[in-house]
């Protein structure tokens, strides 16, 4: 694959080997390879983008040949041993440059970095066909390992970090491999010390500059050396991360207690103890069985878990690791879901007038059918994507899909409104209001055919920029609603400033309305306050007739929830509407035609809605537990 090839080339270029002068250390290895096979030609061949360049060569006059049909290129690409007894008998290489110059035999062993990238080959060539023995290939493989060791020593990064004076990650990986050979099966713990969160580092760099991190690292290195004592090795494995191994066969609880004590002592002596939050991750290691790179990964995972623990020391949890692995998989796969038809879809849940029981709108809920994992709960994938760059294209997909369906229904005469939840990320876009209007034009819909829902937290998070976008939307005639009311700031100043006319009471207040007197008092107060300020009120998550009756008595205008209907596919929802006779078919009027040919809402004062995140959670049987969890 092209991506893998670019990564391979990048690994080669980082070593700065190409077009460097000859080296006696490489030449000795090349001569030994030639002698083992008793062949006239041998080379350390590196596979560049369009050439094979020889770092060392015996019996070869030129320093490079074209990569096309060069056997060494195949070795580098596959990282597998290649033996060609007779080039002229091989369909691929019979017409190669080597064959044309008289080469008949080839044997090559890959030169592979510790990350698994093939750099090229240590190869031997002959002018007569021949076979190879096991002893010869073992010798060639040993010499290839010597070439890679020489490359690492001469051209790779050094093993000592110049800032901390500690051995680095490369040495940690090598030492762990060596211990696996020397003491297979021995149990230890790998410990990773993470000095600070990313936001703390950014704040320190912004205020004090790079010297802030330098001083912190040097201070931590001194403390770690002192804590480990003589004969123990500490490793500087990342910019602000250190690692070390426990003594053999430690008792778990006692060792974790020792680490907690060590961390407390180090923090008390740290010059930045009030500005940084240090965490320790611990992962069990069985020498000889554990992949050294995976050891660092799991230790880092444990360190991140430690930030949420009381004592900032955490033992690696396979269950937590699987959860994070699944989250990463979902995040990585969701981008493809946006581009590939059939994975994402909208389902629809009625929104009902409390007094009459008539359906006055719908919520469209996002669903994802993963090609391998099946149906993924919106309560699982939406919180993952809403804090990433995927939030904006997801909202665009929902806007376009919802308006397309709405336009289709209106052509059939269904008088319906939909609302779309807007995330904090959308309110950061300077052209968001304009793009909403473009979607309305694309689908020939009136501005009041939709309603955009915003959470209190999303608006407060973006301040003036968010208010600018919302005012532009209101000026364009797009209705706005306050979503998840009661879970965010809920300030009177906020209610007065926001250009919305609908308040949606969060389902957490409605869930136990029929049983909890305090919830009844809160909901009654919210409804009264909202009415006094000129808002229309919608209750979310109504799941019983008793709750619906209470809301009607309190003067709540609209409600939605399982008591009325569960989410339905688009065609099922349409049939439900017609069958229930709650939203009759009608024909477009002349005024509708003037606005784009489609009927507008029959009651301008009502504001039915299509909530993306919150309603998606409700429709899946899950609850939104965090204020401001929106994505549109």
Automatic annotation (TrEMBL):
Q: Where is the EAL domain?
A: 327-581
Instruction: Give the matching InterPro entries.
Output: Cyclic-di-GMP_PDE-like, EAL_dom, EAL_sf, GAF, GAF-like_dom_sf, GGDEF_dom, Nucleotide_cyclase, Rev_trsase/Diguanyl_cyclase
Q: Where is the GGDEF domain?
A: 186-318
Q: Name one Pfam family in it.
A: GAF
| SUPFAM superfamilies (alphabetical) | EAL domain-like, GAF domain-like, Nucleotide cyclase
Q: PROSITE patterns, from UniProt?
A: EAL, GGDEF
CDD domains to which the protein is assigned, alphabetical: EAL
Name-wise, this protein is GGDEF and EAL domain-containing protein
Q: Which organism is it from?
A: Croceicoccus esteveae
């Amino acid at each position: 694959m092209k991506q893998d090839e670019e990564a391979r080339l990048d690994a080669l270029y980082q070593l700065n080997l190409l077009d460097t002068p000859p080296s006696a250390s490489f030449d000795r290895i090349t001569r030994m390879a030639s002698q083992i096979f008793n062949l006239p030609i041998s080379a350390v061949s590196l596979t560049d983008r369009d050439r094979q360049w020889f770092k060392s060569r015996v019996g070869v006059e030129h320093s490079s040949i074209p990569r096309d049909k060069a056997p060494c290129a195949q070795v580098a690409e596959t990282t597998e041993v290649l033996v060609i007894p007779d080039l002229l008998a091989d369909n691929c290489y019979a017409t190669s440059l080597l064959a044309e110059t008289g080469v008949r035999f080839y044997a090559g062993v890959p030169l592979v970095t510790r990350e698994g990238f093939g750099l090229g080959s240590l190869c031997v060539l002959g002018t007569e066909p021949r076979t190879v023995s096991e002893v010869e290939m073992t010798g060639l493989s040993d010499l290839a390992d010597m070439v890679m060791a020489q490359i690492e020593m001469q051209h790779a990064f050094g093993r000592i970090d110049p800032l901390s004076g500690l051995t680095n990650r490369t040495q940690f990986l090598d030492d762990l491999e060596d211990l696996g050979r020397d003491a297979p099966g021995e149990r230890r713990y790998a410990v990773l010390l993470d000095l600070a969160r990313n936001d703390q580092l950014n704040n320190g760099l912004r205020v004090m500059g790079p010297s802030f991190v330098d001083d912190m690292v040097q201070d931590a290195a001194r403390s770690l050396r002192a804590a480990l004592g003589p004969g123990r090795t500490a490793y500087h494995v990342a910019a602000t991360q250190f690692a070390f191994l426990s003594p053999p066969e430690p008792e778990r609880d006692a060792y974790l207690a020792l680490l907690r004590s060590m961390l407390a002592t180090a923090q008390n002596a740290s010059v930045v103890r009030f500005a940084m939050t240090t965490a320790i991750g611990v992962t069990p290691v069985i020498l000889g069985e554990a992949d050294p790179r995976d050891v660092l990964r799991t230790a880092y995972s444990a360190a991140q878990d430690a930030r949420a623990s009381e004592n900032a020391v955490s033992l690696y949890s396979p269950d937590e690791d699987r959860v994070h692995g699944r989250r990463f998989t979902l995040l990585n796969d969701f981008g493809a879901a946006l581009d590939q038809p059939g994975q994402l879809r909208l389902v629809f849940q009625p929104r009902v007038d409390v007094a009459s029981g008539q359906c006055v709108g719908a919520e469209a809920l996002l669903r994802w059918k993963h090609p391998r994992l099946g149906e993924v709960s919106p309560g699982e994938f939406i919180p993952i994507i809403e804090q990433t760059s995927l939030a904006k294209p997801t909202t665009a997909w929902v806007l376009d899909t919802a308006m397309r369906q709405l336009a289709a229904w209106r052509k059939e005469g269904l008088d319906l409104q939909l609302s779309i939840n807007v995330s904090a990320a959308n309110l950061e876009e300077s052209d968001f209001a304009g793009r909403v209007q473009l979607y309305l034009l694309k689908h020939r819909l009136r501005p009041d055919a939709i309603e955009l829902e915003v959470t209190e937290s999303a608006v407060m998070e973006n301040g003036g920029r968010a208010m600018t976008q919302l005012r532009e939307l209101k000026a364009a005639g797009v209705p706005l609603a306050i979503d998840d009311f009661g879970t965010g700031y809920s300030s009177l100043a906020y209610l007065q400033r926001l250009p919305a006319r609908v308040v949606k009471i969060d389902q957490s207040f409605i869930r136990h309305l029929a049983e909890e007197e305090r919830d009844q008092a809160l909901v009654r107060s919210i409804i009264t306050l909202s009415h006094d300020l000129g808002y229309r009120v919608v209750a979310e998550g109504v799941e019983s007739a008793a709750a619906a009756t209470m809301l009607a008595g309190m003067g709540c205008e609209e409600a939605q929830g399982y008591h009325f209907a569960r989410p339905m596919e688009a065609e099922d929802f349409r049939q439900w509407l017609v069958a229930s006779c709650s939203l009759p078919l009608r024909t477009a009027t002349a005024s509708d035609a003037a606005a784009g040919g489609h009927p507008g809402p029959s009651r301008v004062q009502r504001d039915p809605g299509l909530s993306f995140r919150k309603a998606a959670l409700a429709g899946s049987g899950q609850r939104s537990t965090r204020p401001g969890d929106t994505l549109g």
